[in-house]
Every structure is written in C-alpha cells, then in structure tokens.
Amino acid sequence: MIRIKDILSLILSIAGIAIVLVLTYYSTRWLSTKTNLTLRSKYISIVDRIMLGQSNFLAIAEIDGKFYLLGITEKSINILKELDDFKPAEGEPSERQADFSKMLDKFLKK
What we know:
Elements: H1 4-39, E1 44-51, E2 57-63, E3 66-72, E4 77-83, H2 100-108
Antiparallel strand pairs: 1-2, 2-3, 3-4
C-alpha cells in the first residue's frame, strides 16, 4: 500500500527538479545577455566569412566604416585588400553576430 508520506516525497522531489530546471534556464539566459554585450564592438564587426580549410578563413571586416578583406589562419591575420567599393547586401545587418537565445527560440519553434 502506498503511503501519503511517500507520495508527498515524490511530488516534492519532482517539484524540486522542476524549480532547478527553471532557475537554470533563466540564469543561462541572463548570463548570455551579459556576456553578449562584452563581445560586441563599437567600431569593428565581421560582415561575412567563409571557411577555406580546417583553420583558414576569408572574412570581410568593417572597421570604422571601411571594409577590408582579411585572410585568417591559425597563426596570423592579414589584411589582403581594402574594399573601397564594397556595400553590404540590403536588408542584412552589417553585424551578423546572432544572439544564442534568438537562435535557440527559432530552432525550438520548428
């Protein structure tokens, strides 16, 4: 026979786990907003990048209103060319750093 004490103990355990999960969720959301602010720069942003190899990239960076083509390897970053006539695609923000919580919400809505 199941005792009421056992049922209450089970309910309290499940409620405790639910509270821990909710607190974990909201604390990670709060932390992600705080750390995202420190990763953004006022004058420098990566407009686009493409991976060429395991640790090799080409990137277009906007630095103080000017655009540069960068070659990025494991050991160095080189300015390959200043892009005088470059204009970012309309409708896309020049800063493409996505907020993790927005990406997660978009994924969960599928």
